[in-house]
Every structure is written in C-alpha cells, then in structure tokens.
Amino acid sequence: MNLIRSSLKYKQVSLIIILMVFVIGIYSLMTMPRRSSPEITVRQALIVAFYPGATASQVQEQVTKNIEEKLFTYKEVDKSETYSTTTDGLLTITVSLEDWVELPDLFWERLGQGLFQLKETSLPQGVIGPIVDSDFGDVVSQLIALETKEHSYSELKDYVEIIENNLRQLKEVSKISHLGYQAEEIHVLFDSEKLARYDVSLLQIIEALKTQNSIKYAGYLDTEQMRVKIHASGLYSQLESVKNQMVGTSPEGAVIRIKDIAKVKRKLQDISQLIRINGNESKVMLISLQMQSGYNIVEFGTKVNQILEDSKQQIPDEVNMVIINDQPAVVKSAVNDFMREFIIAVVAVIIVIMLLLPFRVALIAAFSIPVSIGMTFTFLNLFGYELQQVSLASLIVVLGMVVDNAVVVIDNYIDKLDSGMKRFDAAWKSATEFSISLFSSTLSIIVAFLPLVFMLSGATGQFLITLPVTVAISMSCSLVVAFFMTPFLAYVFIRKGLKKDDAKAKKKFNVLDAIQYIFNRAIDRAMNHKAITVILGVLLVVGGALMFSIPKQQFFPDAQRNQFIIQVFEPMGTRYHVTKSDVQKIEDILVKDSNITAFASFIGTSAPRVYYSFAPVFPQESYAQILVNTSSTEITEELAPYYLEKLQHFLPNAHVDVMQFAQGVPTVSPVEVRVYGNNIDRLNNIGDTIKEIFRKTEGSRLIRQDFDENFILELNIDEEVSNRLGFTTSTIAEMLGAGLHGAPVSRLWEGDDPLNIVFKLEKEKRDDYSDVLNTYISNPFFPKFIPIRQFADATPRWQVGKITRRNGIPALTTGCKPENGYLASEVLQEAKPAIDKLTLPPGYRLEYGGDYKNQGETFGHMIAALIISLVSIFIILLVQFRDVARPLIIMVSIPLTLFGAILGLIITGNVFSFTAFVGLIALVGIVIRNALIIVDFSDSLVKKENISFAEAARESAKRRLRPIFLTTMAAAIGVVPMIVLKDPLWAPLASVFAFGIVISMILTLMVIPALYAIIIRKRNTIGD
C-alpha cells in the first residue's frame, strides 16, 4: 500500500491531522514557557569552613587537605574543575560535578552528611563548618530593592517581609530570600585597665550576662485540680536592663554594675558588607526572587509586578521600590527581538520563492513554511522545550530547509504534468518517486546535528541541545508536509504544466530562466574539462583551509543585555570603609550619566547570580561590585568599553574592571595560565615571570594572580612566663579576640527581633599595635590582671595570606583580560610562545585555562560529533545506494563548503566562534542533500533515458538546478537578518551558513557531476 497515494485519496484524514497539529502549534507558540537562554543546570556549590585564629598555611594543612581528601572520594566530583581558596581563618572550595550528574541537589545533601562525619573525626577543634552552600548556582529572576532614609533597618525588614508574604501566593515562585539587612546590636565597650582597677574579670561579666538572660526550666506546682507551670522572669527587655546588670562588688561592698565599668550602646553591627542604590546614602534591602522551572517567565513577571504595585499600599511612601534585575523584561525583549528576526526571515524566504517561481507554485511552496514551523512548536512544547534564543535561532537556520522537500515535490509534479501525466497520478507519484532520496537527505540533515546531543555535555551541551532537537523536529514535520499535504495542494491549484507554446511567453524575462541559461553554458564547459573542474574544486578547498587563520577566534561573545558589571579589587586586607570610599567615587560618575537607568553597589560582597554564566564572588571587605542597568543593549555595548577606558586607572590603589555578561561557561579571566607544584615560593617566582610576560603583551590588562600576601601582627608569647601565670595560648587568643573583634555573649529579644549583646574593647583601645600589648587579661587561677606585654611581644610581617589549590594540588593561576578592541585569543596567541619556553623545575607543570581550555574541550567534542555525523551520513548513503562509489562522491561535497564558510566570516567581519562551528555542521546536511539529488537523479536518467553516465550527470545538474537554487537561496536569505542585525552570538553562524551554502551550491553543481562522470563508468555499478 502506498501511503502517499492513500493520503491523497482520503485527503480529509491527513489534512485534518496536519491542521490539528498546526493549530496546537500556534497555541503552543502563544503559551509555551519563555526564557532568554536555555536553562542551565549549574553543577557547582561552595564548601565553606571557618578556622578562627589560624593562618592560611595552618588552614591549608589542617583543614583544606582533609576536606579535599574526603571530597575526592566521590565519583561525582569533577576533580579537575574543583578548586579551593585558603585564607587566614577561612576555606572556600568551589566544587564542580561531572556532567553526567543529573540531580545535583541529592549529591549536595549526601556530601553535607559526609563532611559532618569528617568534622567529628578528623578536623581540629575550633573549626566552624564545613557548610555546603548549594544555592550558589541558583539564578535569580528578579532583584527588588527597598530603600529608605527615614526608617530603621528593623522597620525596613518588616516591609520586606510584607512583600515576601504577598509574593509567596504565586505558585510560580520557587525561592524568596532577602539580603542587605544590617542588624542592630548592643555593644558593651570596656577598658581593660578599668576592669583591672575594679578587679572585675571578663569571665565574670560574660557569665553574669549569660546566666541572667537565659530561659531555664523552673518546674511546676501540682494542686488538687490542676498543674501550674512556673516560668522565671528576668530576661533583658530593654537597654537599661543590660546597663544595670550586677557583675560584682567592691572591697567596700558597693555593687558594681556594667554601666559602672563599661559603656553600653545600641548601634548597627560593625559593617563589612553594604548595598547601595544609585549612590544614595540610604538603607537598602534586596528581595531575591526565583521562578519555578517550566513556567512562562514573562507572565510571571507580569504577576510579580502586579503584586508589587498592590504591596505599595501596605508600605510607607518614604520607602522607595526599585527593580534592579528584571529577568522577565529581559526575556520579553530578547524573545520579541528574535521573533522579529524570525518573522523577517520567514517573509524574506517567502518573497524569494514568490519572485523566482510562478505564483501558484510559489504559494504552495511558501505554504509549507508556516505549516511545518507551526507543527514544530507543537512537538517542542510537548517535549518540554522552552521558547528561547537557541530554539528560535534553530528555526531561522532551518527555514530554507523545510521548504526544500515541498519544492522538490512540486517541481517533479510540474515535470510530470508537462510530460502529459494526469493530475492525480502526477500528484502522488511526484512525492513517491523522490520519497527515498527525500527521506535520506532529510535524515542526513538530522544526523548532521544529532550527535551534538550526545557529544556536548555540561553547560555548553545544555545551551545547545535545543538546536539539534529543533532541527530534527522541523525537518521531520517538513517531510510530513511534503508527502501528505503538498501533493494535495498541487493537485488542487496547479492544473497544467508550465510549458509555453506562444512566442510572447517565451520572450517574457524570468530570473530562473536567465540563471538556467548561464548555468547551462557553465556546466557544459565544466563537463568538457572534468579533470580541471575537479582540480579547481580541490584548490578552493585548500584555499579555504589556508584562509582559516584569517578570522579572529572567540569562544563565546558577550550577552546582549541592558546591564554591565563594574568590579573593584582592593589590596588584600583592605578595610570595608576604604572600599566604600572608592566605590563612592565611581558612583559620583555614574549618577551623572543619563544613559544609566539605575545601579546597585555591592560593597564587601557581590550581586546574586543574575545570569547563568555570572559567578558571584565570596564576600570580602576588599571587593566591591556595581550592577549597572542601561536604557538598552545597544547603549550597554557603548558604555561598557567607555567606562573600562575611563575607570581602569581611575583609582590609585585598586584595580577596576568593567565587563559585560558573557555567553557560555563562566571564567574569572579569559586568559589564564596555571602552574602546579608543592612549593609556594617557587610557584610565586614562576607566576611573577608569567605576569611579566603578560605585562609586555599588547592588549593585556587587569593582570592578577590568585595567590596573595597580607600583613599580619604575630604575637610572640613566652610560653614559660605565660604558663606560670596560668595563661595558655588558647586562653590568651580567646580573651584578646573577645576584646578586639568582639564576642556575642547573649541576646536581647524585641518581639521576634534578636539583638546580640557584644562584648569588646572601646574603639580607642583597639586602633594601634601597642593596644594589643597593653590589653589586661586575667584568669580564674590568677586573680591579678596582667598586661599582655609582660609575657609577649608583637612582630608585624608579611605572609602568604591566600593559597589556591586545584585537584588537591597547590596551583597558582595568573590571568589577564583583553583591552578594548582585542580578543582573548589574540592576547594568548602573542604571550603563549614566551610562556611555552619557560623551564619548570621537576614536579611542576603548566596548563592553560580560561577560554583556551573551554574552547579546546568544546571544539574537541564538536569535532567528534562531526566525525560521528559524517560516518552516520555515509552509512545512510551506503544503505540507499548499496554502492561505495556514490556515497564517496556525495561526501566530497562536504569540504567544498569550507571556502565559502571562511569567506563569509572574512567579508562580514565576524569571528570564528562556537556558533560558527555549528554553522559548518549545518552546511554538511545541506550540501549532502544537494549532492544526493544530483547523483540520484543522474542514476535515474541513466535508467530511464538510456544515456551515458557523463551525459546523465550533465543533464541532472541542469534539471535539478531550479529546486537546488531555490532552496539554497531560501536558506541563505533566511539567516540574513542575523547578519544584518549583527547578533553577536548568531551572526557568525549566519555568515558561515549563508556564504557557505551559496558558494558550495555552485561548487557542488560543477564538481559533483564532473566527479560522477569520471568515477561512474559502468552501468552495473548502479545499485538496484
């Protein structure tokens, strides 16, 4: 039974099914989830451990190595991408998981249990943690800032909670958190000399505060009829309660209260982090909002905005609400831009078809485009894929391909009408006759892309997976339309062939006729000089390979967003107020720029992950970040380079970096050199050499290393004297830490707000090196107060304060970024020869990170995918022809794409990027189809018309020119909007595709027939 003939005979069934799928597709297009970029599973988390009082070296030896040893026992951990940063008293490990881990959250839970067991058995006392922060990778959809000058942080927190409670009503909400809250504290500020005079020890005061301000079980009283519980009152309820707390008596019997020996103040906690909005001196809190997966983020944003508007009625007018990061608006704009490009592409392809074909023929061919694309949306939505830039770009690339099958069927239908066949027979036979070749060529296109699903992994694989899936679905839908709808439309609307008998019709100018005339003369000459034609094709392939080094290389371009980032790196150990002062100088500049709509400054910390490739920085007082919103993506592309030029040398003691969000895998520096070894000093020496090479490299900037030194005051304790006085190193450190840093000893509750009671030295007693030695301490065994200087001295010195390790080995990374107008690949290309000449000591090795490493890994996987595609396509052709010669001839068309592809990048000025490589893969399927049509039709002519193979090849090229030319130009025109609009991510792909497909079409139509005529000489080589 012939399905195509049956579908034409019982047309209502096939037409209704196709129409239903199409209508569902239109509905899916309107309702399916939307995102700016594909959802990426961030397989990273932070492990944080505190070891107060320990140097970086002590933390590394006693904590870091133990945790790493435990960590690397898990097979899920990607050891090569897991690295630790050890500083004084602090360890942070960025843990990366293998790409095959599908449920990271389950592993993080198991890891947390394993680290808890490790702490109990192997880590030293005093270690706080380790804690697994698995929220590190979560991308926020919106950052909502509340700022006020009139209200306190406590009041501001109440208003934030009102909004959070309202937002929780939305089922689409995933996580809500807030940041920026500055808690109030009660500071008990003492003078150790004064305590000595009153003969009151620190331990007495701390004990008094703890025991008085605690809840203990007081039992109950049983009566005859009921049990009465007893509750002891006396908890601190106000500041005066703390001031009046008795801590001892004088020799004369007078009561000594805290207010007699210390100052008690209510104030904000010592600030090490702060969030500011638009440079205002106001109190700010942020609400971080995340959306559940699978919802339409644009609709989600609309609902959130409505709730925010309603919430304004519940908070005072003096509290200003600012949306700092609005992902729904970004997605709406991005999807609208892509939809505009998509519609332009569809219209352009239809116009090309209308211009080159008779109206009715063109109408039927054009009709296949919206139907195929509409059906594609049905299955994308059914399989759970979202509408985002990759899926829409895939549809733009595939536009010319989906019309191809329909054009071939219509062209064959008209040929049969011209030969005198009846319309019904011509309709079903036009599709049936080419069913095998259309199926094979369509399958070849799908197979060209499909290996990307399996070979690309991690963030890059997740980013691109929609492309091969979309191509597979749309091409399958186009085949269904060509087989089961196009024959019916041709049968209904085209009742006679296109042969013209009258002289007037012959004189009418037709573009395709002109092209056909020129091509016929060209193919005749090419076939008369077959060897020269093939040699010219080989020379062009070689030329394309030689031209490959001309385009610049860039792994992933910057993302198109109306935001950019300014980072401030102060020297290690810089205090918060110094960082804040420098940030304010930058804010004073930004606030005057009318192109900047808003900005948020994160001092001592960084913004949450507002973009999938943006990695937050662990809080440190010497770091700051400004998230800048602009009026448009075009303005961002102007402002980011401008402020980089203006600010990178603006601060005398700090580095300033200005960067746009980037697509792809996040990197600290695009250019990185890592040196592995065990000796820190040797690593530093090698790193200094690499740093000097980067300094001499044109186009490099912001040269930084992840090892660092800091300035410390080393307390040298005479153990014999201190021990005789009853002081151990531990007690000295604890009491000194309590005085200098402050120790929270109790809490005062105001409703549900806790206020820590913090005990510390008065500020003027902890500002100088000498204050450390002048601090008086005591212990229960020695009642006299002793100044520390009696058994210790202090030595200021520099030390290694920051150590990084990768894969459990100390690894020094020296990185830099490119100046405006340079690419990371250009900087590395110039510096690499000098770095490669370095002689490393035995046991030390060097590797390149950054874009170089990511690009090498991804391109390696893509080359493997391309090889699998080629092998798969060859097998498909082998099965179809049952002959080795013909598949090899068809495969020759693939290298013919190289010259045009590289020429396209050179002419348009685009870089060879990740997506440009995808463009090369897309070309493979197209040129295979063109070559397959020529070879298959040549065989058909040999059988039907009993002509020679050489003549059949010549005639095949001439007769198949029209459908090949039409579909090629349609595919090329479809991606032109990407080139014209200079989309940084997709313009390289479009340039490779558009130029490659047109030039390879010409070469294929010339070289393949000549090669066919040379190789295929005997009739018995045709597989039947």
Task: Describe the protein.
The chain is α+β, with helices and mostly antiparallel strands. 52% of the residues lie in helices and 19% in strands. It contains 35 helices and 29 strands. Strands 1, 2, 3, 4, 20, 21, 22, 27, 28 and 29 form a ten-stranded antiparallel sheet that branches. Strands 13-17-18-16-19 form a five-stranded antiparallel sheet, covered by helices on one side. A hairpin with a 2-residue loop joins strand 25 and strand 26. Helix 11 packs parallel to helix 13, helix 14 (423-433) runs antiparallel to helix 19 and helix 34 packs antiparallel against helix 35. The longest helix is centred in the C-terminal third of the chain and has 32 residues, at 850-881. The radius of gyration is 37 Å and the shape is elongated. The two termini are 21 Å apart. The relative contact order is 0.12. Residues 500-505 and 1019-1024 have low confidence and may be disordered.
Main sheet makeup: 10 strands, antiparallel
Helix content bin: 40-55%
Strand composition percent: 15-25%
What is the helix tally?
A: 35
Task: Label this structure with key terms.
single chain; about 1000 residues; alpha+beta; 10-stranded antiparallel beta sheet; 5-stranded antiparallel beta sheet; 35 helices; 29 strands; disordered C terminus
Fold topology:
Elements: H1 3-9, H2 11-31, E1 44-50, H3 56-71, E2 83-87, E3 90-96, H4 104-121, E4 128-133, E5 142-148, H5 153-167, E6 173-179, E7 184-190, H6 192-198, H7 202-212, E8 220-222, E9 227-229, H8 239-243, E10 246-249, E11 255-257, H9 258-261, E12 262-268, E13 274-277, E14 283-291, H10 297-311, E15 320-326, H11 327-356, H12 359-382, H13 389-418, H14 423-433, H15 435-449, H16 451-455, H17 458-464, H18 466-484, H19 486-493, H20 503-507, H21 511-528, H22 530-547, E16 563-569, H23 576-590, E17 596-603, E18 623-630, H24 633-647, E19 655-660, E20 671-676, H25 680-695, E21 700-705, E22 708-717, H26 719-724, H27 729-740, E23 743-750, E24 753-761, H28 769-773, E25 776-779, E26 782-787, E27 792-806, E28 809-818, H29 824-836, E29 845-849, H30 850-881, H31 885-891, H32 897-908, H33 914-945, H34 949-980, H35 987-1015
Parallel strand pairs: 7-24
Antiparallel strand pairs: 1-3, 1-4, 2-3, 2-27, 5-14, 5-15, 6-14, 7-12, 8-9, 10-11, 13-17, 16-18, 16-19, 17-18, 20-28, 20-29, 21-28, 22-27, 23-24, 25-26, 27-28
Helix pairs in contact: 1-2, 2-12, 3-4, 5-10, 10-11, 11-12, 11-13, 11-34, 12-13, 12-18, 12-19, 13-14, 13-18, 13-34, 14-19, 15-18, 15-30, 15-33, 21-34, 21-35, 22-32, 22-35, 30-31, 30-33, 31-33, 31-35, 32-35, 33-34, 33-35, 34-35
